[in-house]
Write a structure and sequence with these properties.
308 residues; four-stranded mixed β-sheet; elongated
């Protein structure tokens, strides 16, 4: 049985997310500052939209903190009991992040509906000024994470939260302007609902992708049919079965396969054949870790495993 540790997060001494630890720290600081300012602004202006945006900012800070904590745990070395270390903690963090977003959405929607039946006088000018400050701070956070969103599920979750918060600030700005110019108080709960709706697609997408990893489904950018065809095209390969692919954490796809080869191929050199197959998988599909079991023609397994 052979193992190939290609260019991977583990080989680099940590997950892809670990590269952006300092940026995450800055993002946490920005989100935390926004939260405090927006809570004060909401209390002074009476704006539910500002309070909803503050809750969203708090979720950003908590979510990014979870991401940072998961990244820190993921750097711990593997052990005989945890052979992949704590890489999967990043995925659990992403799930918790998504659930927090859902909870915020439910609270915002419920509170906004209550404001329609019991209107509250809102100071539109203060609401507008605080929201502009929040937008500028969120844009700074987006700049910090601009090139990280496609590198890791955790980092994508952090980026999307800051992006959603920036869009929420825009909704608060519009609501504040409407109240300031027209006095229409319903603009505040409407802006709150908009903020809540902005959360839904992000929470769904993050939860969907996280569950995809937890179910050990095939990585989205790995076509097992193509992997099989490439292996079968290698000299001496007769069949491929028990072919499986999954993801340990973002940027760390794993693949296992049983490869049936001719006796002549085995006789010509086991190591050379195994190396060739591993290079085929790692080179064409950028799989971080592959385990290939070579079997001679006519070999019959006794464990009754399901062949695919």
């Amino acid at each position: 049985m052979g193992h190939d540790h290609g260019p991977s997060a583990g080989a680099a001494g940590g997950t892809l997310s670990g590269t952006y630890r300092n940026r995450l720290l800055w993002t946490i600081g920005i989100s935390g500052s926004i939260t405090v300012i927006q809570v004060v602004g909401a209390l002074l202006s009476g704006s539910l939209a500002l309070l909803a945006d503050a809750a969203h900012s708090l979720t950003d800070a908590v979510g990014v903190s979870l991401a940072l904590g998961a990244i820190t745990l993921a750097q711990r070395a593997p052990t005989p009991r945890r052979t992949f270390g704590f890489y999967r903690v990043e995925i659990f963090s992403a799930v918790l992040n998504a659930l927090l977003l859902v909870a915020i959405f439910v609270w915002v929607l419920w509170s906004a509906i209550g404001r329609f039946s019991e209107p509250v006088e809102v100071e539109g000018g203060l609401m507008f000024v605080v929201a502009v400050g929040g937008l500028l701070a969120n844009l700074a956070g987006l700049w910090l994470l601009r090139d990280a969103k496609d590198k890791s599920l955790n980092l994508r979750g952090a980026y999307l939260e800051v992006l959603g918060d920036a869009l929420g600030s825009v909704a608060v700005i519009v609501g504040g302007l409407v109240i300031l110019l027209t006095g229409w108080q319903a603009a505040d709960p409407i802006a709150s609902i908009v903020i809540g709706l902005l959360i839904v697609p992000r929470a769904y997408g993050l939860l969907r992708d996280s569950v995809h990893v937890l179910l050990e489904a095939t990585p989205q950018d790995v076509d097992l049919g193509e992997v099989r065809r490439h292996l079968l095209a290698e000299r001496g390969v007769v069949a491929v079965h028990d072919l499986h692919g999954w993801t340990v954490t973002s940027g760390m796809p794993v693949l296992t396969a049983h490869v049936v080869v001719t006796e002549a191929a085995l006789a010509s050199g086991y190591g050379e054949l195994l190396g060739r197959l591993q290079r085929c998988v790692g080179g064409h599909f950028d799989v971080a870790h592959s385990t290939i079991q070579l079997e001679p023609e006519g070999h019959v397994e006794e464990d009754g495993a399901l062949h695919t």
